[in-house]
Write a structure and sequence with these properties.
Antitoxin; 90 residues; mainly alpha; 66% helix; Antitoxin_Rv0909/MT0933
Length: 90
């Protein structure tokens, strides 16, 4: 058994636990990502809006794949939805 196999075996339970916590708090994580994106966009005065929107969409996609590891995704041949428009301004 190689080093990577040992690491995967030891980190498996931790990954499952973190995934479970992420599933419980998915709405708070998504809200936090939107809020952070909105704050950064305001502080940069919209100069990097496209990049912020792209990064936020990718982060949300990663959280979605992590919390729904048994559902369809790029690894299982399913499709993912593209990120919605820019974060809501308020």
């Amino acid at each position: 058994m190689g080093l990577l196999d040992n690491l995967k075996a030891k980190l498996g339970p931790a990954k499952d636990k973190v995934s479970g916590l992420a599933q419980q708090h998915e709405d708070k994580i998504q809200h936090g990502l939107d809020r952070a994106a909105r704050t950064v966009d305001e502080r940069t005065k919209g100069k990097y809006s496209d990049r912020i929107q792209t990064g936020t969409g990718r982060a949300k996609g990663a959280v979605d794949r992590f919390t729904h590891k048994n559902g369809p995704g790029p690894d299982t041949g399913g499709t993912t939805t593209p990120p919605a428009g820019p974060p809501p301004a308020s």
